[in-house]
Amino acid sequence: MATHTDSGQLWPGLAGSYYRLPLAMVATAPLAAAQAAALLPGGMPLADSSPYNLFWIMLDRERRLVASLPPSLLRPDSPSRVAAPLQARLQRLFPGLGTLPWDKVWTGWVDMVPDRLPRIFQPVPNLYVPLGYSGQGIVNATVLGRELGGAIAKDDFADCAFAITDIRPAPLAGLLPRLTQAVIFPLIRTGNRLFL
Ligand SMILES: Cc1cc2nc3c(=O)[nH]c(=O)nc-3n(C[C@H](O)[C@H](O)[C@H](O)COP(=O)(O)OP(=O)(O)OC[C@H]3O[C@@H](n4cnc5c(N)ncnc54)[C@H](O)[C@@H]3O)c2cc1C
User: Fold this and answer.
1) Percentage of the chain modeled with pLDDT above 90
2) Least confident interval from 17-26, 42-51, 57-66
3) What is d(CA 129, CA 114) in angstroms, rounded to the nearest whole number?
4) CB atoms within 10 A of CB 122
5) Alpha carbon separation from 190 to 2, 70, 99, 186 (Å, rounded)
6) What burial letters (b/e) apply to 47-82, b meaning 16+ CB within 10 Å?
7) 179 alpha-carbon distance from chain centroid
């Protein structure tokens, strides 16, 4: 059952095994070639791997600058409002950058787990529930799907690269997502705007 953040609605106990959190993405209008090259020479993406303050930027093939960040509580549909902490951070990193033309915003849900390691739960025989990509499932879910599919096809789980366990609860799964959205995300956004 690879239904990501909807899995909690589909099987008892799963809702408490991860933190369902919103994540926003923003994109600029296509940038001038010189500005794009000044930000990301050669088109290479940039990422800071801090687990507490995720920060990455990339250019798409139309030279739109794309990034993800916690959504804005008050104006989640406004590209410039959602991107404001990122804009401030970029201006500190790239003095003289100016205001970027923030053009698009969209928001989805991610399945955070405390150790940020994807896992496979097996609540009953023959039901497998991958979860816990923690906002990084594009590669992880692809690899996990190959591993799990291969193990199911062979009916041999000994070599599966991901541990298969009972459902493991995530501490404070009811409270933490609400606290994160109401308090922690606004603090991160303010911190990014002002200092970080
Ligand atoms: C804004 C945003 C930015 C992100 N950026 C990145 C990134 O840069 N890098 C990265 O690695 N990851 C990123 N992620 C996370 C990544 O998208 C997920 O980790 C990944 O998509 C999880 O894969 P999945 O196959 O488990 O779930 P999904 O890709 O969400 O697929 C689950 C599928 O199940 C379907 N489904 C749900 N319920 C049911 C049902 N009852 N019946 C039938 N079908 C159902 C859904 O329609 C969906 O098609 C981002 C996520 C968001 C929201």
Assistant:
1) 85
2) 42-51
3) 17
4) 14
5) 35, 11, 18, 6
6) eeeeeeebbebebeeebbbebbbbbbeeeeeebbbb
7) 18
Smallest CA separation from ligand 1 atom 27, residue: 4
Q: Quick one: which atom of ligand 1 is closest to the CA of 10?
A: 41
Distance 155 CA to ligand 1 centre (A): 26
Any atom of ligand 1 within 6 Å of the Cβ of 3? yes
